[in-house]
Amino acid sequence: MGNSYAGQLKTTRFEEVLHNSIEASLRSNNLVPRPIFSQLYLEAEQQLSSLEAGSRADNEEEEEDEEEEGSESSSPPVSYQMKPPPEGCCTTDGFCQAGKDLRLVSISNEHIEVPSGFLLVGAKSPNLPDHLLVCAVDKRFLPDDNGRNALLGFSGNCVGCGKKGFCYFTEFSNHINLKLTTQPKKQKHLKYYLVRNAQGALTKGSVICWKGAEFRGRQSSSSTCSSTLFQLPESSGLSGSTTSELLPAANPSAPAGTQQTAAAIDHTPSTAAFSSAVYNGKESPKQQLVKNNLSALTRPSVLGTLTNSGPPKKRHKGWSPESPSSTENWNLQLNPQVPNRIKNDGGSLSSLPHSALAGPASSPMVGSGEPVSVPDNLLKICKAKPVIFKGHGNFPYLCGNINDVIVSPLLYTCYRNSQSLSRAYEQYGASTIQPISEEMQLLLTVYYLVQLASDQVPLIEDLEQIFMRSWRESHLSEIRQYQQAVPQTFPQPQVPSQIAPVTSAQLPWLAGLAASSCNDSVHIIECSYSLAEGLSEMFKLLIEGKLIKTNYVVIICASRNRAIDSCIVITGKYQARVLSESMLTPSDYQKEVNYQLVTGKVETLGSFFSTLCPEGDIDLLLEKFYQENQGHISSALSASVNKPTALNGTGTAACTSYEIERHQIRPFQLAVAQKLLSHICSIADSSTQNLDLGSFEKIDFLICVPPSEVTYQQTLFHLWHSGILLELGLEKEHLTKQRVEQYVVKLDAEAQIKFKVFLQNSMQNPHTLFVLIHDHAHWDLMSAMHSLYPQTELSTGVVDRLLNCREVKEAPNIVTLHVTSFPYALQTQHTHISPYNEIHWPSSYSNGVDLYHENRKYFGLSEFIESTLSGHSIPLLRYDSSFEAMVMALGKRFPRLHSAVIRTFVLIQHYSAAMMAVCGLSQMKNYTSVETLEITQNLINSSRQCPSGHGLMVVLRIPCTPLAAVAYERLYNVRERLALEDNFEIILGNPNSGITIGKHFVEQLKVWQKIEDVDWRPQTYLELEGLPCILIFSGMDPQGESLPRSLRYCDLRLINSSSLVRTTLEQELGLAAYFVSSEIHTEKAVVNDVLESDPEKLSSTDNEDEEIATEGSTSEKRSPMKRERSRSHDSASSSLSSKASITAFCSESSPPLIASGDTAKSPHQVLSNSTEENTNNYERQKQKVDKGAQTTISKHLPPVTEQLDMKQNIKSAQISITSSSSSPFSSSSSSSAPTHNSFILQTSQCSMTKASKQPPIVFLPKLVYDIITSTDSSGLPKSSSLLPYHSVMWASSFRPLMSKMMTCTEQSLYYRQWTVPKPIHMDYNNRNEGRMDTFHPRRLLLSGPPQVCNKNKIGKTGAYLQFLSILSRMLIRLTEVDVYDEEEININIKEESDQYYHQPGDMWPDLETFKKMPFDYTIHDPKYEDASLICSKLQTINSEDRSMSRRQDDMYTRRQTTRMRLSKYAAYNTYHHCEQCHQYMGFNPRYQLYESTLHAFAFSYSMLGEEIQLHFIIPKSKEHHFVFSQPGRQLESMRLPLVTDKSEDYIKSPTFTPTTGRHEHGLFNLYHAMDGASHLHVLVVKEYEMAIYKKYWPNHIMLVLPSIFNSAGVGAAHFLIKELSYHNLELERNRQEELGIKPQDIWPFIVISDDSCVMWNAVEVDCSGDRKSDYTWTERNVSLKQILQHIEATPNVTHYALIGMRKWSSKTNRAEIKEPFSCCHVHDFIMLNVDLTQNVQYNQNRFTCDDVDFNLRVHSAGLLICRFNHFSAMKKQIAVGGQRSFHIKSKVSDTPVSISPAQYICAPDSKHTFLAAPAQLLLEKYLQYHSHRFFPLSLKNYSHPVLSVDCYLNLGPQIAVCYVSSRPHSLNISSSGLTFSGLLLYLCDSFVVASFLKKFHFLKGATLCVICQDRNSLRQTVVRLELEDEWQFRLRDEFQTANAKEDRPLFFLTGRHI
Q1: Which of 833, 1049, 1337, 1555 could make a disulfide contact with 954, Cβ separation 3.0–4.6 Å?
Q2: Each residue of 203-221: pLDDT tens digit?
């Protein structure tokens, strides 16, 4: 190599070449060294492209820069493990193993002896970057000034200990403790010459120039080297080695390389190359290959030969590629014409990009170098198109007959991907990890091909796993070494040494050794110059017929001067056919088959079949049979078929098994629906505001299904019967099919119309949540822009066009739900679906516990696989080996026909022959397989076993539609000729059309299903339940069609086995997935079916059980498996009794269709006898069968070269099978016709019933069977590790392996990390810089098991329909609230008066009239039902009667509520989000985060005697409501409007809402209630709750109470609100007075609202009647804005002190409405005039009834209280916060102990347990429940109430009180006629004097209770009020609240009236 100009003389001197050549020949283990003159002249290097040269030069430049910096190459270096140091030696960095210092700084002044011819050089240690280690090296092994002439070896001495004679740098680097993690190389570590300076000290000199010839043929771009040769960078090559523990060296003095190489060869195959995985369903190579092929490696002679031949010795890198250090460092040569990333489309080796590489039209890959001519007539001679897989290096041009070969880059891509390190492993540091070398890759590939059986096809996944495991083993070793490589002074433990990597010189020898024992299945061709000569030789051998037994040809070009070139040619006819066919796209596959059908190419196949019959053409036989037996057969059949119908008609023997289950929700479905709902709620609750559930009022939906008519009708059927449309209110009672069709759309070319309507509806109804359900979501994920399918298919990409359109993505009211059993294609790196939005079907069991109590057990893929394991009953997964053998033989005979055509024609032939055999043409038994015979017989006889004629369904899966049509036509014709048209139906299931069946069968179905509609026709496969039929299921993929429970056989022998992707395989097998009744043990059910179902059934089926009972011999090498499987899946084994099988029903002695049975023995006895008799000869039979049937059929069916007569071979094969059978069942074949008893037994059980209790039996192609049933070490089926979907690809070959233990979630995360969509996938362009942005927030994925037998409606459809139901109910529930709905209390106490002060229709009260209205003291609010009555003069008359009517027992019952739908004017809590109020709430991400400022506001209050300091939290957006001082921005006041202001969009009164404990649930969002009007709303919160309220309500103004009120009640909040408001009113009057505004013009009202007011109503009165008293009224919901603006517009409004409204009740009566205004108590929502009530205060200490107390004070002050009866407020029931937040507990212990109210007070100075609660709260609660202890005379004595002075305290419902005010000029009731039963003096002020009390009269024995702040005040009050004059006190009558002294208890004194 060198310059690229051929023939130019090299610059290397002749002497140098001669010297090097002699040395190379001495060291070489090649017999013939390379000629000298061939080195002097360049050879043409056409393989090395300019791209490669450029990339290598670039790599070199990078490396040179890095080396100058002392760092390693950017490419991963060669992995290396150092030899452990000898025990006891020094291991310190910078010292040699003898402990001598080698560091230059330490020994620079010491005298060092340097032998002659040696130089001192400085070595770099990676652990001591700042030091040089001094070494003495022979200068012959160092380069000259030009970087050349260095010998490749090494010779050096240690200058520390003086040890000499180190011949290997590896040995030397160990001695000087370099501790390398990479292969030791002198070029890397010997860096500088060392020279003596003027002072004699040793210093660093010039850099050693390791360039020039040392880099064989690499062009230098370094300025320090003038050579024009190409130079190879040190570590840029992608290479690697395997790691294995070596045996201890027997001869320590032997050279290290010898030991390493010998051990490497011994260990490489067993440890690095192989793992314990099962490859392609076989034993692992370790188990098989090491046993058989590599056993010779353990013989000493072989090892001796290897050792003697010697390891490749060190030499000049320019001349031989044999040393590890040279071969490791070669770059992977890239072909510039190959795309950088080749998109492979499938899982098999042949899955190619769908470009010009497919089929006959494919052109070979563009190559380089000399062209290779493809011979003419290659296909004709070889019977197959060879498939050439490009491997390493360059690939030559192909010319000539290139249509007869196929070239694939897939293996090249696999190799290249395996060289790229995954990001997942870079955490360990790239410097410690090496990829697998090219040599090892190729060797592992050879090992893999060697262990493949003749009927197996290589899989790319297998190779990737082999590479992965091999690399990972060495990688883990390196990581361990990397972790151990720390400086240690103590001896290192024994670490396994590094084995030498495979070199290119060893590669052909090792590959040949591996292939030596495979019977020439793998042929190795070694070529010395280029691949071209190897390919030419391969073509020559093919033409000469010398590769007949060879399946794989491996061509290796391992020349001296460059990296290896390689390719692999698939020459096996079966393998080449499968691989070449797998390159076709689904569309091309159909085109090719159609082409062969249309052009008549299949006629040769048909004519060949016609020669098989000894009697001639099958059609002639059929015609002859038809003519001869027409009358007999038809009459017999009509009798057998019509008889059940007659029985059914008479009702004597009707089958009861046919049941139509009503629609019901299963526990599984409910669980899934609830999980879906939970995810929807999570989206809504997240802070992203992507879904506002609160804004939706109803649900609408659209279900998208694939364009299958059956699936469409099936979905309509489920939708109709679920009742969901009526439940959601989308449709009325009388539902029509046309209306249901509006909710389901087929994703075909016409889908756009329905979809546009759906989108328009979503835009027009923003308050409706639309759920877009994409069912069978893995179907058609093609990108709308990229499509491999013909453009004529308009439906391609329709999913992408519709579901991914901008309108769907952006609509805030559309949620997309993808539903599929195979979610893998939606779980890629670019998926739209967040992993948090995935819902997986729940498992039914957890730790052995049944979670859902489901009475049906799911039977899916894993259960099918389980049934094939030995020890189980009949396997449910089977393959038909005789069918496969015939297909393989015909494939060799007809190489130009697609295998799908051959397989279909063979299977049609088998079914035809089986039908003829069942009908009595016994000679046809030889032309079908036992499996097909069993299927056909059970199908034909099934309807005869049921009195109603129920039968079995057989699904015959033919993906290719044209072939399905051919099969239908042929089978239909055969059925007609055999007169079976009334026995079973043949149905052609085409995805694009409906179901067509005969009239006779339609009538049967109508009878069974009790359908009276004359025009009814079945539209789904589910409606075919019980119909005996063959369903020919066509279409490239199943599209969600469900099959009925009567499905018994699922024949998948014709599925496209070359397209091996996980989704394809699993959805084909999903056709048979089943729910079986869990009460019946599945295995037992299967056995019973064999024993009891068909007494006339083939004995072969019975023998399957016999085979399970007896262990046979192991099968031949053809199919070795890791686990022994039961053998009844193989027709060769089940053919054991085919003679008995066939004669059992085909013998001429028994009439057709009349089965013979053993009437003397029960089936159980027959089985036991047969088992006993056959156990001994079973093994012999088994061996004969295996070798007879399999070998005879597969080997003797004629290849073209032998031209044997096929019918002879099949006959001989059959004879070899039948002659070996001597089953007792055969004796029953000649017995007489069954007796009447046996017929009763036979008809005793309906075969459909049995079929519905067990899963179907599935027949698979052998290739698919092997993949499905093979598992890895964790038990994971191989199919699970295949490429998941055809439009995705693996992100890296170096990915971790999947595990059986992975949950669905873990599998999803695995695919999300390791798969990427191809450009044809609709998710391909879903890539953003921000990773999270790619997830669509309203998109969910529901994945569940495939469950096609869906008659039980246990599947996903029922689950998502149930989800819609509960989602709708939840939305309704979200739009509803529980509001209190209670009648007003104490209505009967109110004096009935005929006088009405206002007319019912008056809008506002008249001030003068209102002043005349008396005040109603009685409390009517139902929340005060357990409060004390307030007596007045008017009520004393009826008090006795009223006491009896009071409902004592209702006192503690739950308050009555009703559920109300929220109106658009409701107040909301923090969970409400909608577009309109985002800005109001401060959560809208489009707005800047709302900032708030804290402002102090202080004012003095004389009654408290101190200054009150409050804090306002004011958001920036609300600062306009306040006035701030200009210089310091101090808060001055809150702006108030004028009385005369009028505005439609403004509320004048500031609203204050005191709240505690309700930061989430308080109804503070008044945006909708105020109808968007501007208003001032202030939340009044306690200091300790400020932060949490601010978090939830960032845009609300907060008034924070002082910390002293943290434990206060609502009275304190009301008190401070009122005082603050009055103080603010004064400030505003002063401020605006300066602006010329009169003080009385400032608006004086504030609103105090409860935090649970949710909606407001208004009564509209219609007084248009004839008489004035006639009126009608209606109540409707209105906005709070309307009510407040109405009240604010009241004439003379400032004359009213308090204005309120009713509490809403559904039972509001006419009397309440008749008087529009009342003068009475107001609660919950009041407008307070702070100006008029200046001198009336709330009691700041109160916890309960403070509003009643305040109302009484206001009235007694002579102020007006007006209640608008036409307005009402609804209060929501909120279960948290409010008064409930006060918990009374013991102060001593933290344990919650129930404390009764009786313990709330105690005697002073007692040792009573003190309570942690405010004294006032204890007092109020005690009086509420135990006031009768203080006022015994008052109990139920309503005529003599307790006199309460200046306050109202609740003394309980059984005691009445009379309120009087001591204030002068106050309004009090006339007490002249009243005698009181008690006196209550609560915290009396100075207005209460002795003379005031002496005006009232008390009963004798009446009681007094005085309450004061302390004991001193108590005594002063008694003295000041002269109470001892009339009241008697005792010392023991003093009490206190149960508070500690520091909590300031209240004190009581009780006395008795004298």
Answers
A1: 1049
A2: 888 888 876 433 333 333 3
